[in-house]
Design a protein that fits this description.
This protein is of the alpha/beta class and about 375 residues long. The protein contains 13 helices and 15 strands. The protein has helices at about 35-45, 50-55, 60-65, 120-135, 155-160, 180-185, 195-205, 210-220, 240-250, 275-285, 330-335, 355-360, 375-380; strands at about 5-10, 15-20, 20-25, 30-35, 45-50, 70-75, 95-100, 140-145, 165-170, 190, 225-230, 255-260, 305, 310-315, 325. The radius of gyration is 22 Å and the shape is globular. The relative contact order is 0.10. The model has no long low-confidence stretch (mean pLDDT about 95).
């Protein structure tokens, strides 16, 4: 029996969002729960100043929220401010910020090409991420280059203290130490591991595999969530089975596997490329929840954009040659220039019976923006159509 005299509030790791529909977001678990109007109004009353009786939530809904750790009961009031603003449509839910183009490695597949001394100022980073949160943002991915190579990393990290979005650090692990981990204002660290020693070092340089695996172990012992990112390439296809054992032994919450696109440094190393069928076999081992693709008949990137170290804003990191604007104009201003692409506008997708399940795949991996993605066509058992 729930004590009706207890005060009730939302847990510190959850928040309300007015996206296309009202939602409750649990940034600790990276889970989004859609709400009806009654649920939204009830949760707005869970402000730490009202009792369970005053909040008057539907009993089953209340119990579910308590069981999931979304609501907490208190002996004394702890008032919290619940402020809501409508997100743009489509909503910007996932933001990657490339804070620097410096890097401690020279990976043979890097689409950004040669590393260079281009860094985002901490004040500019603050403006971007705070506007993202105000727009109803959910998940922030801080990347590079190698983000830990930013010359003002402590200041960048300090910006994230208390920011109420899920914060993920995307790193190659080479600069990660126990001291840095202990100071991180992040929920998750993603380490790139691109095979076992042979396959990984082929891509990223001798000794980088051992450093990456050591970094992954450090993350796990730190208490932060660990995720792993892997690029399928010709040198690691025969290692994928053992890679899966490694990733699962690390207890990673997510294993993302992707196929390289001929751009950046990969243009000088085309021997690393894989066929669509090879990519599909490797990507079938991936698991985990983060999804930044399309929905409701729309193609990928519907809720995602990227901000570069030089301030350019693009629909994703592959499209900085066709930016939406620059961050100094305001993230919302740039996002409103985004022109979402419908699956019906993609040749080969408009009449495909699995297009909604497939989502059209990666637009950059396709031959052009209005063509099918050959990897996703292979994954769905479809003949690639052009035209």
């Amino acid at each position: 029996m729930i004590d009706q005299a207890k005060f009730i509030k939302m847990a510190d790791h959850v928040g309300l969002r007015l996206l296309e529909t009202p939602c409750l977001y649990d940034r600790r678990a990276d889970e989004l729960y859609e709400l009806n109007d009654e649920g939204l109004e009830g949760l707005e009353r869970c402000n730490g100043a009202m009792t369970v009786a005053q909040a008057a939530l539907e009993p089953e809904f209340l119990q579910d929220c308590l069981d999931e750790g979304l609501l907490v009961l208190l002996d004394e009031p702890q008032p919290q401010t619940i402020s809501l603003s409508q997100s743009p449509v489509p909503s910007l839910r996932y933001l990657e910020v490339q804070i620097t183009w410096r890097c401690n490695l020279a990976c043979r597949h890097c689409y950004l090409g040669k590393a260079r001394a281009e860094d985002m100022a901490p004040d500019d980073f603050r403006s971007v991420v705070e506007e993202f949160e105000a727009m109803g943002g959910l998940r922030l991915m801080v990347s590079g280059g190698e983000p830990l190579a930013h010359p003002q990393w402590p200041e960048i990290n300090a910006v994230l203290d208390g920011l109420p979005v899920r914060r993920a650090l995307l790193s190659n692990g080479g600069l990660l130490t126990s001291e840095i981990l202990g100071q991180l204002n992040f929920d998750e660290v993603q380490i790139s591991i691109d095979g076992l020693q042979k396959g990984h070092d082929m891509l990223r340089g001798k000794g980088s595999f051992e450093r990456a695996v050591a970094a992954a172990h450090l993350v796990r012992t730190s208490g932060l969530d660990l995720s792993i990112a892997t690029m399928a390439h010709s040198g690691n296809l025969d290692e994928m089975g053992d890679m899966e054992e490694l990733v699962r032994s690390l207890d990673a919450i997510e294993w993302g596997i992707d196929a390289p696109v001929i751009s950046g440094r990969l243009s000088d190393n085309p021997d690393l490329a894989v066929t669509p069928d090879q990519a599909v076999q490797a990507m079938a081992r991936a698991y985990g929840g983060a999804f930044h693709g399309g929905s409701d008949g729309m193609a990928c990137g519907l809720h995602l954009c990227t901000v570069a170290a030089d301030g350019k804003v693009a629909q994703c990191g592959f499209y900085f040659d066709d930016p939406l604007g620059v961050a100094s104009e305001g993230l919302r201003v740039c996002w409103q220039r985004r022109q979402p692409l419908a699956l019906a506008d993609i040749a080969g997708c408009r009449d495909c019976d699995v297009a909604d399940d497939c989502g059209g795949g990666c637009r950059f991996r396709a031959a052009d923006r209005l063509s099918p993605d050959p990897v996703m066509c292979a994954a769905m058992g479809k003949e690639l159509e052009q035209g």
